[in-house]
Amino acid sequence: MEHTRPMVSFLHSADWQIGKPYARVVDPDKRARLRQARLEVIERLGPLARSSEAAFLLVAGDLFDSPTPGASDVTAVCFALGRLGLPVLVIPGNHDHGAPGSLWHSAFFQAERQLRAPNVQVLLEPTPVVLEQAVVLPCPLLRRQHSEDPSAWLHHLDWNHLPPELPRIVLAHGSTSSFGAIDLEADDENPLTANNLLRLDESLLAAIDFVALGDWHGLKQVSPKVWYAGCPEQDRFPRASDYRSGQVLAVAVERGGAASVTVQPTGQLGWHQLRFRFDGDGDLDRFEQHLLGLLGDRVGQELLLLDVEGQLSLQGQRRYALLLERLEAQLLRLKRRGRIETMPEDQELAALTQRPGDPLIARVAAALQQRLSGRPTASGPGTAGDPAGQVETGVSGADRFEPEVVGLALGELHRLVQAGGS
Length: 422
Hints:
Oligomer: single chain
Strand order of the largest sheet: 4-3-2-1-13-14
CATH architecture of the largest domain: 4-Layer Sandwich
CATH superfamily of the largest domain: Metallo-dependent phosphatases
Number of domains: 3
Radius of gyration: 29 Å
Order of helices and strands: EHHEHEHEEEEEEHEEEEEEHEHEEHHH
Structural class: alpha/beta
């Protein structure tokens, strides 16, 4: 008897990591905004589900950032999921694994799910889940790190016991042999791991129709049938130019047919990178234009990884410091790399060192400039700069001072002199 093979549409997402602490963000208000953004994206999935006629939503692990999230995060997530208006199938990942004592087994979660999100089904067993439109094959993580293959049970499954007309969808969290854990994007809070390796060989892929993966936080197509959806709200700076995050996948598939995958943007926060070299103060205007083109005038929505090099004068360093202060206020996070050398202009040095009426400032400025340039300074009594030997300008201990610190000291001295109008 020939069975009709219906096409099913669904949404694929993963790695929401609700409750992510963003510990590297110093400002507590900005940490709270980043955490809230991960909750707000959930409600944007409802319109996407309706427009794509999705029959259900699959969350491929790490819905929460921890196996024991806070009660308020649990309630907020259940409330948001309950308002989506379609079935939601979830597996635990490495962050929110399903070990005894974890969230999924708690009476509090069970009560909140029943009250606020009866449409949510948490799949804690590696066994087929037969829906009206498809068969979901979950590979839940029951502890943070699995040395064995979480999908191993699929290699022993009797496929003849599954409805022949329904598409088969694997739901898993981990890395694949063709896209190993070493390639996964780590961040400050999540180091790389070589565990949770999925063996998705050709014989297995021939028996299924789609593999919905989580763990990699960016969009990634491993093969025509195997996809990482990435985060619905980006949560880290990319390491490669082709890195994409802040989306879900709208998938349409039938048994034995090729999957149709549409990327649906969902993220609202901007994670940017800028590398810039300063060859002098004249580049500051160009730097500001780059920032304007990258960030616009948006406040509290952007994060920037700024990697700089080059040199600026004392006046240029002060202007640059003011720009950084404004960026810190505008951005949710400013992460800085690199260093700009301080190269005082001749007139700036003259204003500090040629001060017959103020020999103390002149001697200190000269000593700082010599340390900044790496030249030994004179020391001891009887030197031309300090005939009485009252001011220590020797090289002893000079290597304890980083050039950046010496440059800041020289710049602050210049600022005080300019402010004094002398």
